[in-house]
Each structure stands twice: as C-alpha cells, then as structure tokens.
Write a structure and sequence with these properties.
- With 852 residues, the protein is α+β, with helices and mostly antiparallel strands.
- Helix content is 40%, strand content 21%.
- The chain has 26 helices and 31 strands.
- The protein has an eight-stranded mixed sheet with strand order 6-5-9-3-2-12-15-14, with no helix packed on it.
- A hairpin with a 5-residue loop joins strand 27 and strand 28.
- The site of arginine has 11 residues, from strand 20 and helix 2.
- One of its GO terms (biological process) is proteolysis.
- One of its GO terms (molecular function) is metallopeptidase activity.
- Its cofactor is Zn(2+).
Length: 852
C-alpha cells in the first residue's frame, strides 16, 4: 500500500470547473457536486475515470446527464472507477449527491464539527471524505460553492456571491487543488479590518471566532496586515482576492491551514490577550499567521504536483515566515530559536528510525510526512541555496519562479531549475539535500604555518533507513577568524564544500587565529571539532557573529553537563565566570542573554551523550542539570535580585520583541533565584502578575522547586472557563512533575473532569507534555511508557492523525539502556498489535521499531 514518487503519472482527466452545494446537517449533510471534466491531453487517451472517495454514502451519480445505474462503477473503500466506455469522448459533466456525517467525524479530516460549528480540513487527502473527486494536487479548478444552513455565518473560499436567508454562495476564481477547499458554518463573530494592496486593491479582512473571543483577535489581525505588507515589499507578492478570512477552531489536528482566502487555524494560534497568552504564544501567532498568509503564493498560486513535493511549499513558506519574524523581531535571537527547534525536532528525527529525505520517495500515509524534516530542514535547504547564490541571485530566482510557475503544480526539479537559470549554476549536486536523509557531520582539524591557516574538513552522513551510503553534499560553511586579541581578522567568508574531504587556507595571518566556524548556522550539520574550554570562552566573549557567540556558550554548557553526568565532576569556574560576564553585559540584548543563560534541554543532552558513545541516563541528566542550575544560582547570587528588578519593564504589557526579551531574562533570573529563596520571589510574582507570561512563569518556577500547589488550585479556579489557558495548566503540571511522579501526575490529570481527550490540544497538554518531562517519561518503572501507549491505543480509532504523530515520543528508544529499550519496545509492540490499528499509526510504529 506504499506510494512511490517514481510511479507518478499525470491525471487522466482535468477539471475545468467545480460547483458544490452543501445542505448542512450534523449527522446527514448532503453534498451535491457538478464537476466539468475534460481528458488530459498530456495523458494516455481512453482511460477510466478514477474518483477518490471515503466514508461517503452515494445517493446518485450521473455522467453527461445520464444516471449511472447500480453496478456500473467499480466501488471500493477508497473510491469509484467509471469505465471508459461510459464516458463521452470529449469534456463531460459529472454529477453526484453524497451524504456525510460531520458530527461523527472525530478524525478532524474532511468536514467535521467543533463545538457546534462546521469546519473542514482537507490537506492532504481530506476532500475525498466530502465528495467524489480526483483528490490530487495536480488537478486544479475554480470552485463555486453554495452553503444551505441556518447557521448565522456561512463561509467558503474566494469572493462572496449571493446570500440570503439560510444560504450563502462563494466563488473562487483561482484554480486550486481540492486540498485548499474550505467551508465554515457556525455562530461566529467577526473582527474586521481592511488592507489596501500596493496596486490599490481593497481587501476585506475578517477573523471569525466564537462569541466572547472577539477581544483576542487584535494581534492576529495586526500580524496579518504586517504579513501582507511584508510580502509586497520583500517578495513583490500582492494578495489576489477581495476578501481574506481566518477562522479559529478549537478542535484541530495541526497548527493551521492555508485554504484559499479562508485560512482555518487552531484557536491557540489566533487568540491572544495579555492575560491569557504568553510571549511565546504571541510569537507563534505572528509566525503562523504569516506562514499561512505566505502560502497564498508559495503553495496556492504555485502548488505541488504531488505530495512528495510537499517541501516545495512548506520548506519555502517556513523559510519566508522565518525571514518575516526576523525582520519583525531580532534576527540573531530568531536564528538561535530556529536552530534550537531544528536540533530538538529535526536532528532528533534525522538521527533516528524516522529519518527521511526532505523529499521522501515513498510513503504509506502522507499525513505522517508533515515533519520537521520536510518543514524545517526544507527551510534550511533554501537558506543554504540563498547563501550560495547570494541575495541578488535569490531575488532573481524567486522572481523567475513566480513568473514561470504561477498557476502550476510544480516539482523540486522545477524549483532548482529556476535557480540554475537565474544564476547560471549547476545545482545537480546541491539536489542531494532533497534526496539524502540524515544530518551530515563535519569533522574539522586545522594547522597553522608561516602565516597560513588551513581548515581540513571531512563530511560524513551516517546511514539512515533505506540509505546505507551517502554521497558528499554541497555545504556552505560560513567562517570568520579572530586574532588572539579578540579582533576579527577575516570577516565572514562562505566556504563551499563539495568533496568528502577538503582543505581551505587563509593566508597572511600574523598569529594563529581562533576560527568561528558555521556562523549563523550556515548549514544543518553537526560540527565535530576538538577545542578547549578557553577557546569557547574566548568566542563567547569576542565572536562578532551572534549565533556563534551563543553557540560557544552552548558548547561550554554541554561540556560541563556531560562531565557532571559521566564523571560526577563539579561545574568549573570557567563556565560560571563566562556566564556571569554574559549576565552582567548590559550591552547585550536581554533576549540574547536569556538564551545564553538557558541550559541545553535534557533531551538534547541525551542525544549529545549518545553521540559521544555514552548511554544516556535520563535521571542522571536531570539531576546534573538541576545541580548545575543551583551552582549557577549560587554563583550569580549577588546579581540575580538586581537583574530580576532591572528587567521589570513598567507600564502595561506589550507583546513586542524587546519587552518579551526583558521578560525572558527576568524569568531566567527568577528560575535561578527560586532555588535560593524557596520561591519567595516567584510567589510574589504570581500574586502580582498582570499578564500570562509572568503568571505562568511564576507558577513554573514554583513547581520546579516542588512548591506551588496552592497556586495550581488558584490558577484553575481563575481560568476554568478558558480552554487555552487550561491547556497550559494541564501541560505545566505534567512537564514540571518530579520524575518519579510524572506518570502518576499525568494519569491523575487524565481523570480530571476537564480532560476532554478527543480534543487534540487537550490530549497533547497531558500525554504529549510527558515528553517535555524527559526524566519522567523515561522513569525506569516504565509507567510513563505504559500510560502513553494506553492512551495512544485509545485515541487511534478516534483520531489516527494525532495518534500517529504522537508515537514520535518513542522515536529515540534506541539511545537508551537495554531495560528502557525493552520497555519502550514492548509499548510500541503493544500499540502495533492493536486490532484494526489505523494505517497512520501502523506505518509510524513499524518505522520506529525498524521492521520493514
Ligand atoms: N499546510 C498546513 C501548514 O503547514 C499544514 C496542514 C497539515 N495537515 C495535515 N493533515 N498534515 O500550514
Ligand atoms: Zn505550511
């Protein structure tokens, strides 16, 4: 049942126009479709008509006005086939009426209900659960939609048509694949605004939310307008309809969806107010609003030929939203955050059983490939391309891309060809970034003689499932050199590595320099180079590249932690002194200082130790990290209270990056301070907080030191009525529970009356949050593994997509000791043996276990 990229064939029939009528009813919605087909001149003639369709009750169907009697079509679980001899030679009209059950649709794919409102999620293959259709992205058509319902708000893609009592019509002139179809109906309130495009087109903007949430839309609306302007200014892309709507939905499997003119969002990425959303939430809202909006050009106007090309739209759109956020906020801080996320999720994936290329070559369930590799590594690949061809080359290539491929369902080959044509480069070897899985390792040695400094670099990518041997890739390595006084003697230069082994020489140097390698994280690789604590401290103090400055501190922290875990060593003064200099350096952006003072996560340390040949013990890592935090607190004790006060910005809460950075540093100080004052400052902050960032931060600091039980109760009573805030309440308790009590805590929370496990956000806030508690998840009793497996087995028949995604909690099982491996394997096998396990989860568990 696997699908292969190499099996691609063009569709036998194209669609000229789609017209849909929805008669909404919770358990028995009727969908009437009229689809104008035409044989594809690029395909073999005389083929049968294949229509995808799942969970549909077919009421009637007709071809060219003639009803199809029973038995004419070959019916299956996955669709219909109409024999060629029942089809006219030229274009023809297909008509059908089907019945579907939105209220019974708990998988949240297709047309479903969330809190009494109707909504849809069609990417990747959900449209086939709405009506019979060639549900593939290379079939594009304009859609006309009529919705009949007594719900007050009726929305679909495109521009408004006629509307009246109990109905509304919508018309989307831009040809689109079915995965971009959307429909919403419900008792919703709109917050409206307008935007004038650079050529003077007026666009009506609307954010639709449940009654009561109108006050939480301002930030999303503002982010939308900034995104629209930015895409005009930076990419020359203008919006192309008279209306752009966003709807917030509480039950949603993913973050959001870029349906043409009608984006549908998980409400947690739209709704924000100072008292309910944290700085992190605001940042996510801004980034995801931008992401979905940017898809209008990179995804919708130019879509993917097939789902193997998913990174064509996702990698590029992530890259664009990252650019946007770094323009809106601090570029270095954004870059560090993106790399932290890349390493935490993508490196973890790339170095485990789920490793796959940015463009996979086969899949069983495409929903399982909306991964950090396709998205985030896909974005890194574009960043490398841009670095290699330069800003001007990139701009030319993108202009050509939009000109050449507007209206197309394109491929990665098309994408690379645009760069080749615009910049006169041969990108054949660069193309390996799309086809080879795994994180390349760069092994670096150096020598210095007669003023010549040489870097010898070896690249190697370890085997990944199905790819035992790798060919060398093109790796842009940004390097700068500092002299021993700390001055930069060679500014950032991009070395272009193409061979398995290569040397690069810098001449005319007065003294042996200190290299700053892989500046700005110029490639998604792992740098392996033996260096000293002194050199790292030197770079932390002097590097002009903010990313590598941070990276040097990071490496120091990892060294210290690793030695604490393996040799029970005490943290040395070199690291603590370096930290103190950072903490005291008022010339540094507070957000940067907060990042530099933050220790690597326990999961990150587990991977680091594993890479160094040590079997990680999650409890020992947790203990060492706590111990180091206490040592930091003691070492910084003289400055913490002042730092905590200095970062207290007066005035009402504002979500901008500068203020958020101050709060982040203040929170770091509070976390350390709590270890010295038994939570006094945190308890006070909890009482005084007038925004969620500080309220939740205080509660987290209290829970970390084993206090805060009273506040947990108060928090619940204060926020009982707010789903998104209660999600945080669940997640915080699970992620901050003491390791030996994590499973028990999570289990108790699953018995709470508000644990609405069919809601993906709520499910993740307890079961998923266990992964944030690494030592608790890996408790040697195996209690957490068991709990997670029990719940995944329960969720699978209800919501396969979310279940499958969450099996990745187990993807690192091979890192650990034999006992833990056995326990995790047992949990995975128990999931695998579940009768009628979904295709989604079956594929994931099989890949994680490594049986083919
Ligand atoms: N295209 C959406 C986005 O990145 C994600 C949709 C994911 N849907 C899914 N079924 N995997 O913005
Ligand atoms: Zn996307």
């Amino acid at each position: 049942q696997a699908v292969f990229l190499s099996d691609y064939t063009p569709p036998a029939y194209l669609v000229d126009r789609v017209s849909l009528v929805f008669r909404l009813d919770p358990a028995a919605t009727r969908v009437l479709s009229r689809i104008e087909f035409r044989p594809n001149p690029a395909a073999a003639p005389g083929q049968p008509l294949r229509l995808d369709g799942e969970k549909l009750r077919l009421i009637r169907a007709a071809v060219a006005g003639t009803a199809l009697e029973d038995g004419v079509c070959a019916h299956s679980e996955t669709g219909l086939t109409i024999p060629a001899d029942r089809l006219p030679d030229g274009p023809f009209l297909w008509e059908a009426e089907v019945e579907i059950d939105p209220a019974g649709n708990t998988a949240l794919e297709g047309l479903y209900m969330s809190n009494g409102m109707y909504c849809t999620q069609c990417e990747a293959e959900g449209f086939r659960k709405i009506t019979y259709y060639p549900d593939r992205p290379d079939v594009m058509a304009p859609f006309d939609v009529r919705i009949e319902s007594d719900q007050p708000v009726l929305l679909s893609n495109g521009n408004r048509g006629a509307a009246g009592d109990g109905f509304a019509e919508w018309s989307d002139p831009w040809p689109k694949p079915a995965y971009l179809f959307a429909l919403v109906a419900g008792d919703l309130r709109a917050v409206k605004d307008r935007f004038t495009t650079k050529s003077g087109r007026e666009v009506e903007l609307g954010i639709y939310v449940r009654p009561g949430d109108e006050g939480k839309c301002d930030y999303a609306l503002d982010a939308l307008k900034r995104s629209m302007k930015w895409d005009e200014d930076v990419y020359g892309r203008e919006y192309d309809l008279a209306i752009f709507n966003i709807v917030a939905v509480d039950d949603f499997n993913m973050g959001a969806m870029e349906n043409k003119g009608l984006n549908i969002f998980n409400s947690k990425y739209v709704l924000a107010s100072p008292d309910t959303a944290t700085d992190g939430d605001y940042e996510n809202v801004e980034g995801i609003i931008a992401h979905e909006y940017f898809h209008n050009w990179t995804g919708n106007r130019i879509t993917c030929r097939d789902w193997f090309q998913l990174c064509l739209k996702e990698g590029l759109t992530v890259f664009r939203d990252q650019q946007f956020s770094s323009d809106m906020r601090s570029a270095p801080v954004k870059r560090i955050g993106d790399v932290l996320a890349l390493r935490a999720r993508q490196f973890r994936e790339d170095n485990g059983p789920l490793a796959h290329p940015v463009r996979p070559s086969s899949y069983i369930e495409i929903n399982n490939f909306y991964t950090a590799t396709v998205y985030e590594k896909g974005a890194e690949v574009i960043g490398m391309l841009k670095r290699l061809v330069g800003d001007a080359g990139y701009a030319r290539a993108l202009d050509l891309y939009f000109r050449r491929h507007d209206g197309d369902a394109a491929t990665i080959e098309d994408w690379l060809k645009v760069f080749e044509d615009a910049t006169d480069r041969d990108l054949t070897q660069f193309g390996r970034w799309y086809t080879q899985a795994g994180t390349p390792r760069l092994h670096v040695t150096e020598d210095f003689k007669d003023g010549c400094y040489t870097l010898h670099i070896k690249q190697e990518t370890p085997p990944t499932p199905g790819q035992p041997a790798k060919a060398p890739q093109v790796i842009p390595i940004a390097v700068g050199l500092l002299n021993p006084n700390g001055d930069e003697v060679v500014p950032t230069t991009v070395l272009e590595m193409t061979e398995a082994e290569q040397s690069f020489t810098f001449e005319n140097l007065a003294a042996r320099p200190v290299p700053s390698i892989l500046r700005d994280f110029s490639a998604p690789v792992i740098l392996e180079r033996t260096t000293s604590t002194e050199e790292r401290a030197f770079l932390l103090a002097h590097d002009t590249d903010p990313f590598n400055k941070w990276e040097a501190g990071r490496a120091l922290a990892k060294d210290v932690l690793a030695r604490m875990v393996t040799d029970n060593a005490a943290p040395g003064p070199a690291y603590l002194d370096a930290l103190e200099r950072v903490a005291r350096d008022d010339g540094l952006d507070p957000a940067f200082r907060a990042l530099a003072l933050r220790l690597p996560s326990e999961d990150d340390m587990a991977q680091t130790l594993f890479d160094a040949g040590v079997t990680p013990d999650p409890l020992a890592i947790h203990a060492a990290r706590e111990k180091l935090m206490l040592a930091m607190a003691e070492h910084l004790s003289a400055i913490l209270p002042d730092l905590y006060e200095a970062m207290n910005i007066p005035g009402p809460y504002a979500p901008d990056a500068r203020a958020a950075g101050c709060r982040a540093l203040r929170q770091t100080a509070l976390g350390l301070l709590s270890r010295l004052d038994h939570g006094k400052a945190a308890a006070k902050q909890y009482r005084d907080a007038d925004n969620m960032t500080e309220q939740l931060g205080a509660l987290g600091a209290l829970l970390t030191i084993g206090a805060g039980q009273e506040e947990v109760g108060r928090f619940y009573r204060q926020w009982e009525h707010d789903r998104l805030v209660i999600d945080k309440w669940f997640a915080l308790q699970t992620s901050h529970a003491a390791p030996h009590r994590a499973a028990e805590t999570a289990q108790a929370l699953t018995r709470h009356k508000d644990f609405d496990w069919k809601n993906p956000n709520r499910f993740r806030s307890v079961i998923g949050a266990l992964a944030m508690n690494a030592a608790g998840f890996h408790d040697p009793s195996g209690a957490s593994y068991e709990l997670v497996a029990d719940w995944l087995i329960r969720l699978d028949p209800v919501n396969p997509q979310t279940t499958a995604r969450m099996t990745t909690m187990f993807e690192t099982w091979r890192r650990y000791d034999a006992d833990r491996q056995d326990l995790m394997r047992d949990a995975l096998r128990r999931i695998a043996r579940t009768p009628e396990l979904s295709r989604d989860t079956t594929e994931m568990v099989g890949r994680i276990l490594g049986d083919d």
